[in-house]
């Protein structure tokens, strides 16, 4: 803490006033007309603004300094330009261009850069894609993304697989803050679905990396959901508002959100509230309705930022989401439950970020983030023909603090270093009620009550540039303290630690294309779920495990990226070796192999696996209106202990899409496909969500269209045009049948 205070004091001492203005206008290249509401941000600075209704903007920049501006707007190509100040500039944006390799990303390096410049395999779901696709949830927003496989155990869930790994082996972030906590499960979970998709600006997926920058759980990679941030205005202060309503037929969705905002030169704030009513899934073919799968959701989001002394900025946010009656259709349909649902399911996040920009090369940008989260999950269960009703509740309170410092040491050397600390406290309980006598028994929940997990890490990553070669390397040290006290299984205290690193080489054969060779290690520390779970899962009963160490992985990959006006592509081949994997093995409880007819399992560091994969995506622009985009992902996973298939590996899958964009008109024909997955592990064979013999292959065709005029836009879609019955491998529910949706968005 003393070091942090000294750095902040040093930052104040180097604070400079910004006096040289840059003014300009943003124009559409096709129509030569002004573009309003374009975001103009200054790299490594809290400075930024939006263009007014006439396309004009004005910014005060550091005196005598070369500055990089990022220019971005929904539906237009992102640009990076350098300016000095005292200039009137004209910036022309190309509409409807390919965004592959051209999006601004922050997750991989904790600093802004174009995705083309990153040595990492990056998938970005842009704001434009979110608008065009109008996804029902965060889970469905990632369907079709390169390198991502979205499994849905239930309609109110959604667990992204990145490079064959999911659950607590893939790290989820909200605005750079860990969503993963001490109770994240091995395998699929529903927590990604507790992020309000209405509040999201974009999603960044860093495939295969993340441990150096963000710590535990990033074995498969890291997914960062970046929520919308209100923008300053360079003109007069103004109030604004917007809203959206969505309808899906067959009673599958009725939702809406409303937002109000205020913006001035140095202060901006926005807030929204939403309500969603999701009906039961109407599946393809002759499957019909799958009940119970529907649920309802409501929530609020607030975000504000204030800029002062021209080089300081504070951003604060509050997010709250509540879901009710989230049914587990698979448990009711296949596992003999009369009732199995999550009711309630709550996620709350509050945070404050303080940023400072300085001309001091060692502390170019400093950020301090304080966060508080609360996750509450209540499960209600009752077996068929049973008079016993069970209510289980798990609540996790998380406090976090992170500090990061970006340094621009020289023209060829940049670095980001920092520290972070997270503390989780878990409360868990269970109440079993005899419905005939109304007698209640209150007992231990899935976890021992008042368990805790503390997580402290130090990291540093550096980038060196020399002619056509760029080298990025870094390391991280993490230590943990995990405590759990159980009346039956005793007290457990674990203090694991890990040291990981990465190195990447980029060779730019031209400014718009380069080859990549990289190696990186990752880890996942055992958590409260691993060491203390006592309860049922998909195919058995799990008892606590008290002697676990971190899972580890080493990945080697090679890639190629290219970006041009007409054609862009990215291709990656990788090999990941995992060791000391924490997996369930058969065990006994009080000398018995079964509890109430369910096989007993316990976790142990006994598995070694290997995953090899190829990821490819490209986009070709026939002209300014017509674009073809596609991607393909292939994975091969093997358990090295028994030379058997690795569990839950997705099949070959991909997307083909033809997109049309002309001024206010948008259209898309999207073809999604997956091959049959019959390479099954023993766990897959025992999984009731996977059909006997494996999950059949499928292909579906979706059509989308949109039209915008003035401040109103309408988007609509026809999904699963040929009404195919299909299921995403590993899911507990089937995909939508032939149906349509429509959204109306408006601004005031």
UniProtKB/TrEMBL annotation:
A Pfam family assignment: CarbopepD_reg_2
Segments forming domain TonB-dependent receptor plug: 117-222
Gene Ontology molecular function: any one: siderophore uptake transmembrane transporter activity
Source domain of life: Bacteria
Signal peptide region: 1-19
Topology in membrane: Multi-pass membrane protein
Protein's UniProt keywords contain Transport: yes
Family: Belongs to the TonB-dependent receptor family.
Full protein name: TonB-dependent receptor
Organism: Draconibacterium aestuarii
């Amino acid at each position: 803490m003393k070091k942090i205070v000294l750095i902040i004091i040093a930052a104040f001492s180097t604070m400079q006033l910004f006096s040289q203005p840059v003014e300009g206008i943003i124009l559409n290249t096709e129509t030569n007309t002004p573009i309003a509401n374009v975001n103009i941000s200054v790299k490594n600075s809290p400075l930024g603004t939006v263009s007014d209704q006439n396309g004009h903007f004005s910014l005060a920049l550091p005196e005598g300094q070369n500055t990089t501006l990022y220019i971005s707007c929904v539906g237009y190509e992102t640009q990076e330009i350098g300016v000095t100040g005292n200039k009137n500039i004209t910036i022309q944006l190309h509409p409807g261009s390919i965004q592959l390799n051209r999006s601004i990303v922050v997750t991989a390096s904790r600093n802004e850069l174009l995705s083309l410049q990153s040595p990492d395999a990056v998938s970005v779901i842009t704001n434009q894609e979110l608008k065009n696709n109008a996804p029902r949830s965060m889970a469905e927003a990632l369907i079709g993304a390169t390198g991502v496989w979205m499994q849905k155990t239930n309609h109110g869930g959604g667990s992204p697989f990145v490079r064959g790994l999911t659950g607590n082996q893939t790290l989820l972030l909200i605005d750079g803050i860990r969503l993963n906590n001490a109770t994240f499960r091995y395998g699929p979970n529903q927590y990604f679905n507790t992020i309000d998709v209405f509040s999201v600006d974009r999603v960044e997926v860093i495939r295969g990396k993340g441990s150096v920058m963000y710590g535990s759980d990033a074995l498969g990679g890291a997914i960062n959901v970046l929520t919308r941030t209100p923008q300053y205005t360079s003109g007069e202060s103004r109030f604004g508002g917007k809203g959206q309503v969505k309808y899906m037929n067959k009673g599958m969705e009725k939702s809406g959100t409303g937002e109000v905002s205020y913006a001035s030169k140095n202060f901006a704030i926005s807030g929204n509230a939403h309500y969603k009513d999701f009906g039961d899934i109407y599946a393809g073919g002759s499957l019909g309705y799958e009940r119970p799968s529907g649920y309802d959701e409501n929530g609020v989001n607030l975000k504000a930022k204030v800029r002062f002394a021209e080089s300081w900025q504070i951003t604060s946010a509050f997010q709250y989401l509540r879901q009710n009656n989230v049914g587990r259709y698979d448990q009711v349909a296949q596992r003999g439950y009369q009732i199995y649902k999550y009711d309630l399911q709550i996620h709350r996040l509050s945070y404050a970020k303080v940023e400072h920009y300085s001309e001091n090369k060692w502390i170019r940008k400093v950020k301090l983030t304080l966060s508080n989260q609360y996750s509450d999950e209540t499960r209600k269960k009752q077996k068929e023909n049973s008079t016993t009703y069970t209510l289980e509740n798990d609540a996790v309170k998380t406090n976090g603090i992170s500090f990061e410092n970006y340094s621009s040491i020289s023209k060829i050397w940049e670095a980001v270093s920092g520290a972070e600390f997270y503390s989780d406290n878990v409360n868990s309980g269970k109440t079993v009620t005899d419905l005939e006598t109304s007698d209640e028994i209150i007992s231990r929940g899935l976890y021992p009550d008042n368990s805790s997990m503390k997580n402290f890490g130090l990291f540093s990553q550096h980038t060196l540039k020399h002619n056509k070669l760029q080298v990025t390397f870094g390391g991280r040290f993490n230590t943990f303290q995990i405590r759990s006290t159980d009346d039956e299984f005793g007290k457990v205290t674990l203090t694991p630690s890990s040291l990981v690193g990465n190195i990447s080489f980029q060779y730019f054969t031209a400014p718009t294309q380069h080859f990549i060779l990289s190696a990186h290690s990752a880890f996942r520390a055992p958590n409260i779920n691993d060491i203390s779970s006592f309860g049922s899962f998909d195919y058995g009963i799990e008892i606590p495990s008290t002697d676990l160490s971190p899972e580890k992985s080493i990945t080697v990959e090679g890639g190629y990226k290219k970006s041009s006006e007409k054609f862009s592509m990215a291709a990656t081949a990788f090999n990941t070796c995992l060791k000391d994997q924490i997996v369930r093995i058969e065990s006994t409880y009080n000398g018995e192999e079964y509890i109430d007819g369910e096989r007993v399992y316990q976790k142990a560091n006994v598995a070694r696996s290997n995953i090899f994969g190829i990821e490819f995506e490209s986009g070709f622009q026939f002209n300014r209106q017509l674009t073809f985009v596609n991607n393909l992902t292939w994975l091969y996973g093997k358990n090295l202990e028994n030379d058997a298939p690795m569990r839950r590996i997705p099949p070959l899958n991909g997307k083909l899409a033809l997109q049309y964009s002309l001024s206010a008109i948008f259209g898309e024909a999207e073809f999604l496909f997956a091959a049959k997955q019959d390479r099954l592990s023993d766990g897959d064979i025992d999984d009731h969500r996977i059909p006997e013999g494996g999950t059949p292959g499928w292909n579906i065709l979706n059509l989308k269209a949109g039209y915008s005029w003035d401040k109103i836009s309408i988007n609509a879609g026809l999904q699963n045009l040929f009404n195919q019955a299909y299921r995403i491998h590993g899911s507990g529910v089937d995909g939508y049948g032939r149906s349509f949706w429509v959204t109306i968005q408006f601004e005031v």
